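Researcher: I'd like a structural prediction for the single chain below. Treat it as a standalone chain; there are no partners to consider.
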Amino acid sequence: MISRRIIRTKVLQVLYAYYSSEEKSLGKTEKELFFCIHKSYDLYHYLMLLVIDIADYAEKRIEIRKKKHQPTHEDLHPNTKFITNLVIEQLRTNRQLNAYLEQKKLSWVNNPELIKELYLIMVESDLYKNYMATEDRSYLDDRKFIAKLFNKLILITEDLYIVLEEQSIFWNDDVEFVISMIVKTIKRFNEFAGSDQSLMPMYKDQEDHDFAKDLIRKAIINHDELRGLIEEHSKNWDVDRIAFMDILIMQLAIAEFLYFPSIPTKVTMNEYIELSKFYSTEKSRNFINGILDKTLKVLKSSGKVEKVGRGLIGE
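Model: Treating it as a single chain, here is the predicted structure.
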């Protein structure tokens, strides 16, 4: 589930904290990195629980309307398509989801106002109205609706971000990515899998886990060499005036050039330029791109960049 891009983002954030702290402990920094990654995986499960709680809230409202002193025909014969959504039911009974939520003690019980707000936003949306107005019922339609509910409504609800920020400083930057992973998960759901439907693992494979550990270590251990290369190839700039985050982005990129032979240099360039879009100004992005391009050419010409693997030799 945790992509290489998210790993790079977390490493950048933790590296910033490492250099900002008076205590320089590689072991502690490594633990902090994996704690941050685990928090992203917590959020993956936590947000999936959200649609279950919205459905529970919707069902309670239906039951309250039925018990009115003078219920209307609509009160007594409500449209239950949403609360009986087949994918929500599958999530509700999912063994893996429930085990994780129980283990981590994750619950929205202290945020009833957010659940109510999300419900009200949902019922006023065309997405919901069109879904509820269709008499046909299929697992595919239910699955499409839940995917769109995450992408088109939950993702853009500002109060969700406020609540998450209050609970964890690690979550706000992760919401968009985590929801994209939830949508991918939902699209893979199979109605015949029932409660045994598998969710995404934290890492695609052991290689991604090792990449996270190795990247933070290589960047810190080889600090002097990496910073020296940045200074060498930015001679016309006062290094002390270059934004600290820009230096860290370049430090990580050059570390990948030098110490990760299986990662194509083009991939590294693209990933860190993409990261700079979120952590640097437009002027900084152009600067980072220029310095990395210049550095890579010199490293290649001196034979310091060696890539191995299928299609990478002589890259």
